[in-house]
Amino acid sequence: MSGQRCPNDNHIRDQIVIVTGANTGIGYEIAKALAGRGGRVILACRNMEAAEKAAAVIKRELCCQLLNDKSKSKQKSTTTNNSESANASDNTNTTTNTTTTTNTTTRNDTGPAPNQRFCVEARYLDLRSFDNVRRFARNIMAEFERIDILINNAGVIFEPSKENTTDGFEQHLQVNYLAPFLLSHLLLPHLKKSENGRIINVSAHSHASAKMDFDDPLNMGMWASKFHPRDAFAHSKLAVILATRWMAKELKDTSITVNCCTPGLVRGTSHLRREQGI
């Protein structure tokens, strides 16, 4: 359950990024990676206590990493300059190397303090409520001029209860599919203001076990008579993939690209915590 790190080191400095369900697991690692690349990252979560803690931990870890990288860079620079000075044949070269060392040190010490360099914020978002999704979108659009990246990562898996949300939908269907696509549509005006807007939806391999009944696409009839949490989860993820394809086609002539990914099993996610012995 380990994978390769992203092979490029591209930066997204000052881009506005929203990651839902970013207080743990996949979402947390996504948020940390994008914050480390210079993005202003918003952790959109239902558990605000966990989200605020995650934001603080991300900033602390990135600051430590930055300071460690600076220390290594300074040591390398000092070693290189000392070597050049030792091999110099006259005092002029020695003076030049001393100046170079001073300038290098000055450049490394400039810029924002480490604790101010990374911007990670927690915001409340409950995908079990369409009203809350609309409120979240209104607040975000009022605060920011644009949105560059929206990552619909939050979801529920294998919820044993058949209880519907306050909006009347099965939990997997609303949290994994309906609410994220409502959020995407509400934020479209701001995503279109970005030069390269991105919408990324997280799916799962289990979508392959689901079948879509287009006479009852929301499976309202099926869940009324026969409900199983694994089937409900698989159905919701198949819906995510189909809707992603549709949205990508609808937005093909805009600056926004829409993609779907299946990350596989990741430690820290809820479905692994539910399994015995993991």
UniProtKB/TrEMBL annotation:
Ranges of Low complexity composition bias in the record: 76-110
Entry annotated with the keyword Kinase: no
Name used for this protein in its record: Uncharacterized protein
Sequence segments annotated as region (Disordered): 73-114
Key word 4Fe-4S present: no
UniProt GO MF annotations: oxidoreductase activity
Native source species: Stomoxys calcitrans (Stable fly)
Short name of one Pfam family: adh_short
Similarity comment text for this entry: Belongs to the short-chain dehydrogenases/reductases (SDR) family.
Keywords per UniProt: Oxidoreductase
Domain of life: Eukaryota
